[in-house]
Sequence to fold (367 residues):
Amino acid sequence: MESRQPVYVTRPFMPPLSEVTSLLEGVWERAYLTNNGPLLLELERQVSEYLGVPQTVTVLNGTIALELALEALDAHGEVITTPFTFVATSTAIRRVGCQPVFVDIDPETWNIDPDAVEAAITPQTSAILAVHVFGCPCDLVRLEAIARRHDIRLIYDAAHAFGVCAGGRSIFSWGDCSTTSFHATKLFHTVEGGACFAEDAALRSRLRQLRFFGMDVDGSQAQTAIGTNAKMTEVSAAVGLANLAHMPEILSKRRERCERYTSILSRIPDITFQKYDASEYNYSYFAVLLRDESRLKTVVERMRERQIFPRRYFWPLLSDMPVFCESRCVGSLSVAHDVSSRVLSLPLWPDLSDSVMDEVCQLVIGK
Ligand code: T4K
Fold:
């Protein structure tokens, strides 16, 4: 009987505990736990420097980051988005009082299709919320041109895209605002956490105001907006600082693991992969597109018997979820339905062993 543990789709990166506790010792001495403490400010400084962006507005999680971005940009009415994503993308749209409008995706990148976006714009449209799914950049140039032409806001849900660069700069610097997630399952994490990024300084101030109860953040503390409490704590910042120091190792190990998967699985004719065009990619997920859904179900079942648990990211489509059944869909979303029905995220983390990878590949390939 084998002794290995169950294999999940991912496993959080755990920095050496001593590196976290040495940061926490300072927190305990200061007894300053939250509200823009020194570790939080240092994390924002180091993340900005690491990514090459002007400033980072950290928040509690990637979902609230989306809500704040939509609010800060005065989204109203309809927001055009992708159905092929995690549920948070569209729950954020609804929670700020807007309606998601679902459009189809590109068959190669699995990201929102710019032609479909443009066809969906109406006088009610105030924003586009696109997702760099699995860290693969959207068609940035075309989406920007569409947003400008129609004078609507462009927001990127970049929850999967930490460290990705496109067009020679951080992916977070595209659009009016980008948001990301620092959840435990992400390649860079603060246990729970997230951030908003904007090139416009006034927008960043607005985001800071919204995360701090709506109070002015210039020192006056005047109450000029209806905000929320979305502040990250010193404990999360300590984990983030410890993890950030390991990013080069995290990225190189993930890349090596993904290349190994690709070299084994690309020999199989009926397995295909997402196509990405990024000057720097982050290897945040390893998704395979299988021949059809029945093959996918067979693979999932075979793996389950071996205590291996890949995930159907993202199935069902958001547009097929009962909570979004009233939402407008433009066209049949045929590409999104097709991709969603046969895509599978395989286990991936920096120290995933060769032997587990071989077992996973064997089960994907089957007989
Ligand atoms: N936008 C997009 C496009 C997103 O994908 C997400 C989140 C968001 C926005 C919102 O960001 P956050 O508000 O979450 O910051 C996971 C994550 O919880 C979620 O953050 C992520 N996307 C989504 C794609 O994946 P689940 O339901 O698959 O998580 P869970 O708990 O099943 O974790 C997956 C596997 O990871 C588990 O089987 C075991 C392993 N695991 C998980 C945790 C939490 C661990 O080994 N240790 C852990 O601590 O959603």
Notes: The pocket of T4K is lined by residues 8-12, 61-63, 85-86, 88-89, 131, 157, 159-160, 181, 183-185, 194, 309, 311, 313 (CB under 6 Å). The chain has a mean pLDDT of 96.
